[in-house]
């Protein structure tokens, strides 16, 4: 497991991290985005989707819970998932996310709502807000990601 951190001074820096992830993303991958409201989780997801070819801004999936993106809209099918409104991890199977991993990647905000054992091979990103308003990104890259994870 590789760990690291990076300071993100602007929203554009967060979007650039998403673009870096997109360059290594493949079907079956899961990217977990953790952090408080307003920390930049959706900015990273938007940068990832834009780098995959999405024209326009991706909406936050807060109310839809799962926002799918498919070819030709993006070069790789992605489900952008926001679990904030999930009441219990037992509701997770109803979303069909594991089935989607056969041909899609998942980008999951609020992964703590899925329980501690969900997606053990995921790239885990955590964001916090610094006193000056910048963001602190920390990550854990499991073996499945170590050779692909951009050195940021």
Summary tags:
alpha/beta; globular; tRNA threonylcarbamoyladenosine biosynthesis protein TsaE; 152 residues; P-loop_NTPase; 22% helix; 7-stranded mixed sheet; T6A_TsaE; nucleotide-binding; single chain; cytoplasm
Summarize the structure.
Keywords: ATP-binding, Cytoplasm, Magnesium, Metal-binding, Nucleotide-binding, tRNA processing. This protein is an alpha/beta fold and 152 residues long.
Please describe the topology of this protein:
Layout: E1 2-8, H1 11-24, E2 30-34, H2 41-51, E3 66-69, E4 78-82, H3 97-100, E5 105-109, E6 123-129, E7 135-141, H4 143-146
Parallel strand pairs: 2-5, 2-6, 4-5
Antiparallel strand pairs: 1-7, 3-4, 6-7
Helix pairs in contact: 1-2
Describe what you observe in this structure.
By secondary structure, this protein is of the alpha/beta class. It has one domain (11-132): P-loop containing nucleotide triphosphate hydrolases (Rossmann fold, 3-Layer(aba) Sandwich). Helix content is 22%, strand content 26%. Strand 4 (78-82), helix 3 and strand 5 form a beta-alpha-beta unit. Helix 1 crosses helix 2. The protein starts with a strand and ends in a 6-residue tail after the last helix.
């Amino acid at each position: 497991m590789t760990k690291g951190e990076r300071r993100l001074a602007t929203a554009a820096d967060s979007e650039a991290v998403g673009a870096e992830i997109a360059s290594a993303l493949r079907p079956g991958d899961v990217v977990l985005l953790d952090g408080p409201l307003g920390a930049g989780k959706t900015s990273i997801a938007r940068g990832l989707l834009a780098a995959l070819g999405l024209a326009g801004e991706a909406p936050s999936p807060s109310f839809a819970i799962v926002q799918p993106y498919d070819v030709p809209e993006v070069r790789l099918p992605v489900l952008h998932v926001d679990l904030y409104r999930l009441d219990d991890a037992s509701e997770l199977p109803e979303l069909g996310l594991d089935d989607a991993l056969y041909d899609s990647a998942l980008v999951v905000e609020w992964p703590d709502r899925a329980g501690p054992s969900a997606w053990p091979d995921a790239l885990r990103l955590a964001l916090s807000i610094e006193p000056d308003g910048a963001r602190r990104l920390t990550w854990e890259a499991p073996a499945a990601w170590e050779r692909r994870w951009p050195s940021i």
